[in-house]
Write a structure and sequence with these properties.
alpha/beta; Rossmann fold; six-stranded mixed β-sheet; four-stranded antiparallel β-sheet; 14 strands; 37% helix; elongated
């Protein structure tokens, strides 16, 4: 195997990566470093560039410009070495439903040149990790969505990858199944020491699972830190006021010196303040004096939803693209695929 290019302590190092599909710039000069053994999350809405970035890092798309090293291997010039050292679970299902779980795993192991008896040993090990040992002989089409995801994760682990890429691994799953999948992912980090890079648009999952998070919006990384540090960066408390006149109330409260930030969205007003419990009566009084109806108020500590709103001016739900726009991006990505 070729000598690895050293990239400081980063298992995954990205330097100014860009991907364009015609006039659409899906990824805009992304820079990041993922450390060994951490769970690193790319958090953003549909169409933000998460999947396109992952696709370049796993060598299924060529970058327009920039550079990236995965396990010290260049994604453009050492593609085979990159692929041998990573595991991938794509957003779209990729199992053969007519085969058994064992046959799916055996086929994958064969493609990676894993012979017997090592092949059987590894298959037994990975299915145990994801809790599917008793379903090895069952046909995949009988599996639930969560079980299929777990089998795909097991398949991605067969060749002992140093980095596991998970693209929206829990999309379309019910909350309980999503929780179980994240439990297995945490177990992988603890027991195997694998570096995991995942994409998601579920805020609560990123908060509870990831060691660090990069928030990506319109192809750019706009914030990167631990979940706790990102939330603490807002400071104080968060007050949410539900009102049909959120924009007008926003303009009024912005004049108050003790309001750090105020943004109207989704028929609500979100404010960052110190001592929120004292601020709520003042805000209600201000609204009443200006004949603004207040339907409800709530007080909380900052969440990643609030962080995303702070950096983008929108909630992640507002940024979910339409089916038409999603098809346009997929079509352009298909045309630009190398």
């Amino acid at each position: 195997m070729r000598e690895r290019m050293k990239a400081a302590s980063c298992v995954l190092k990205v330097e100014g990566l860009v991907k364009k599909f015609g006039n659409l710039e899906a990824v805009k000069s992304v820079r990041l470093c993922v450390n060994e053994g951490e769970i690193f999350g790319l958090l953003g809405p549909n169409g933000a560039g998460k999947t396109t970035l992952i696709s370049m890092l796993v060598t299924t798309k060529k970058p327009t410009s920039g550079k990236a090293l995965v396990n010290g291997f260049d994604i453009e010039h050492q593609m085979d070495d990159v692929r041998k050292s990573i595991g991938i679970v794509f957003q779209d299902p990729s199992l053969d439903e007519e085969l058994t779980a064992f046959e799916n795993l055996e086929l994958h192991a064969t493609m990676y040149g894993i012979g017997e008896p090592e092949r059987s040993k590894r298959i037994a090990e990975v299915v145990k990790t994801v809790g599917l040992s008793d379903r090895l002989k069952d046909v995949v089409k009988t599996f639930s969505g969560g079980m299929r995801r777990r089998l795909e994760i097991a398949r991605g682990l067969l060749h002992y990858p140093k980095v596991l890429f998970l693209d929206e691994p829990t999309i379309g799953l019910d909350p309980q199944t999503r929780s179980n999948i994240w439990g297995y992912i945490k177990k992988l980090k603890k027991e195997k020491g694998i570096t995991i890079l995942l994409t998601t648009h579920y805020m609560e999952e990123a908060d509870s699972v990831c060691d660090r998070i990069a928030i990506i919006d319109h192809g750019q990384i706009i914030a990167l830190d631990t979940p706790e540090s990102l939330k603490n960066s807002l400071g104080g408390d968060v007050i949410t006021v539900e009102t049909p006149e959120a924009e007008r109330l926003s303009e009024l409260v912005k004049k108050l010196k003790w309001v750090k930030e105020a943004k109207a969205h989704d028929g609500k007003l979100t404010l960052c303040v110190e001592f929120g419990e004292k601020a709520i009566p003042k805000i209600v009084t201000l609204a009443n004096s200006n004949k603004i109806q207040v339907d409800s108020t709530s007080l909380s500590k900052p969440t990643l939803d609030d962080v995303f709103l702070h950096y983008t001016g929108r909630t992640i739900r507002e940024e979910n693209i339409s089916p038409k726009e999603s098809m346009r991006i997929r079509r352009m990505a298909w045309r630009g695929r190398h």
